[in-house]
Design brief:
Largest sheet: 12 strands, mixed
Distance between the termini: 31 Å
Strand order of the largest sheet: 7-8-9-10-11-1-2-3-4-5-6-12
Number of domains: 1
Order of helices and strands: HEHEEHHEEEEEEEEEHH
Shape: globular
Strand content: 35-45%
Helix content: 25-40%
Mean pLDDT: 77
């Protein structure tokens, strides 16, 4: 039943979407401040400070009827507080491109280990629509949840929660998420919550959408090979140990 409801809702979006040609949405972020009790004080202080800096960063989602581009506002992220951009944002994933028509999905990543890379991905999300509502920015929102897929692998211990509004029948959202019967105004992930700050559906011209096209773009598999190649065997053993614990 939930599957048929989602299909019906998406068809309704296709009917209504002609009323909205494009728009731009500003988001803020609240990072989770908890960390392992085993973390030493110096590292704990560094993590706390970096996450406080992360809360100052703003994000933009530009979209039209078929495409969306999500990115961190560069004027607020360049060496904010003396911390590297990838450390502040976590994971170094800074830009996302989605195309609902061609089913293209790309991420721009910038980390000390791999450098600047554009990754072609297959978007993995498995939404469950839940009969819960709340009002965000004056708009009635509905709840949806999905398992979290990291680099194509399902993280059993992590759930993504989205609050979307059918009042804006655009199936996009922050950080590359979408596919729901309305714009996502709030996204609760494993590192923090992205929340809407400003919605602008009346623009003088279409907003910029960077398609993140590059002849040097790599697949997700190649990217993981590049990343793993930068770790020592001891670090790889540590990563495997953490992954095994998460799967239990």
């Amino acid at each position: 039943m939930k599957k048929y409801f989602l299909i019906l809702s998406m068809l309704t979006i296709q009917h209504c979407i002609g009323q909205i040609k494009y728009g731009s949405v500003q988001y803020g972020k609240l990072t989770y401040k908890e960390f392992s009790k085993d973390t030493d004080k110096e590292m704990a202080d560094w993590i706390a400070k970096s996450r406080n800096e992360a809360d100052k960063i703003e994000y933009t989602l530009n979209f039209n009827t078929s495409e969306a581009y999500f990115f961190a506002n560069s004027s607020l992220t360049e060496n904010a507080g003396g911390f590297s951009l990838s450390a502040i944002l976590g994971g170094g994933m800074l830009k996302y491109y989605q195309n609902n028509t061609s089913k293209e999905y790309r991420e721009y990543r910038d980390s000390k280990r791999t450098g600047k890379v554009i990754v072609n991905l297959e978007q993995k999300v498995d939404w469950t629509l839940i009969n819960e509502t709340k009002t965000i920015d004056g708009k009635l929102c509905y709840k949806a949840t999905s398992p979290y897929y990291q680099d194509g692998n399902k993280r059993e211990s992590v759930t993504i929660t989205a609050w979307y509004t059918p009042e804006i029948p655009i199936s996009f959202g922050p950080a590359g998420f979408g596919g729901l019967p309305g714009l996502i105004l709030e996204l609760q992930g494993h590192k923090g919550t992205l929340y809407v700050k400003k919605i602008n559906l009346i623009l003088d011209k279409a907003p910029e959408i960077d398609k993140l096209v590059s002849q040097k773009a790599v697949t997700q598999e190649i990217y993981l090979q590049m990343l793993m190649g930068t770790f020592s065997q001891e670090q790889l053993d540590g990563i495997k140990e953490v992954d095994d614990k998460q799967k239990k």
